[in-house]
Amino acid sequence: MGFEFAGEYVNVLARVEFKTAREIANLATRLYIDGKIDAVYIIFSEFKSVLAPNLALEKLLPIEKIEDEDAKDEKERASDAQVDYIYEQPPEQILSKLLPKYIETQVLRAMLESSASEYAARMTAMESATKNAGDVIEALTLHMNKVRQAAITKEIIEIVSGAAYGA
Q1: C-alpha separations of 42 from 34, 67, 85, 164 in Å
Q2: How far apart are the first and last CA of the chain?
Q3: Counting Cβ atoms within 10 Å, is residue 28 exposed (0-12), middle (13-18) or buried (19+)?
Q4: Rounded to whole angstroms, how far apart are CA atoms 27 and 37?
Q5: What is the pTM of this model?
């Protein structure tokens, strides 16, 4: 299709490590900062429950402002935005440390949730296979018992017929 991959990480969910999440996050962040890409999205299997895997799509970069859903109207939002925070360090310095950690953590979370979702799917599949194998064993045992019973009945009939014929 003509796509060029910036990186390839094979079998990373077999053993999820923070080191791998950091490498992926650093690559995505570097490509975004260099202007080679416009946005970074992550697609992963979100773990909701064992029976309900959910495909999730989240935007990592650029980071958008989180809107407060509980705010009633624009006046409340405007008053919240006017709060002046006092930082011990310049905001740029704080964000330069926090934002990479945030991206790394989001990548690690996606990897962990995908891994948990995969294990849940495997567990469900194995449980289903075990139940199906039990059903097959039960059906084969019943069939084998019927065949054996028919053979015994046939032998008894032959013995009785032979005894009646010989008498």
Answers
A1: 19, 20, 31, 84
A2: 88
A3: buried
A4: 11
A5: 0.69
For the stretch 95-112, pLDDT in tens is 888 899 999 999 999 999
Encode pLDDT of 34-69 as tens digits: 999 999 999 999 988 887 778 999 999 988 876 655
Q: Domain map of the chain by residue range?
A: 8-66+100-122, 131-167
- Whether the ω angle into residue 91 lies within 30 degrees of 0, i.e. cis, is no
Q: Taken in order 1, 58, 99, 35, is the CA torsion positive or negative?
A: positive
CB neighbour list of residue 108: distance below 8 Å, 6 or more residues apart: 16, 18, 21
**Domain over 8-66+100-122 is classified CATH 3.30.870.10:** no
Per the DSSP assignment, residues forming a β-bridge with 59 are: 41
Q: Structure tokens of 156?
A: 């008894």
